[in-house]
Amino acid sequence: MNQENKYNPLLRYLDKILVTIASLYLGLVLYWINQPKLTQPDSIVQAKETWTNVSNSQFIAYIKQSLKVIKATPLKTPSPQPSQNVPLERVYIPQYPPKPNKVTSVPLPPKPNKVASVPLPPKPSVTPRQADIILTGVLESGLNSAALFSFKGITKRLQTGDLVGSSGWTFQGVTQQKAVLSKGEQTRYIEVGQKL
User: Fold this and answer.
1) How many CB atoms lie within 10 A of CB 58?
2) Between 73 and 1, whose confidence is greater?
């Protein structure tokens, strides 16, 4: 006798136990399959048949009416167009907030000669500082690369060769998810989220 079977008598009869369990399971499944189905009362069956007959007759009437309409309308054949082997391209149309209306100023009457006028200092130019321009996204697609730059909450899409605001930098393309900008002989690589 085996050393294992001596200490665990369950292992000795394991194959017989498994065959018995499988046979019982098979018997229960066969009984369940051959068991007669529960029958519904005749009133429920008749109500279902009447409802299906009514809904079927309504559906058949609808189909007949639709076929009459289809037969009455002539079939329009599309005019043949020359085949174009131009690939479709998605076009992104940015939507910008409306620009405020320009206020026209009314010319002031001339000043009297008695008052001496002091020349005012020139107004500073309204060019954006480079720190105000942020790269918010890039699209690396070879010659069709694009970048999204944000300036004071307004996002603008730039193609290769476009100027970045009035900063003097030109968008050259995208390399390794970085925007390539040039200004004269200078070249900069900016990642998404960085300021210009």
Assistant:
1) 10
2) 73
Listing from the earlier edge strand, what are the strands of the sheet with 133-139? 133-139, 146-151, 154-159
Three-class SS state of 43: helix
pTM > 0.90: no
Q: How many CB atoms lie within 10 A of CB 155?
A: 13
CA distance 167 to 188: 13
Provide the token pair at 92: 């992104």
d(CA 67, CA 58): 14
DSSP 88-122: P-------PPPPPPPPPPPPPPPPPTTSPPPPPPP
Is residue 147 within 8 A of residue 135, CB to CB? The reply is yes
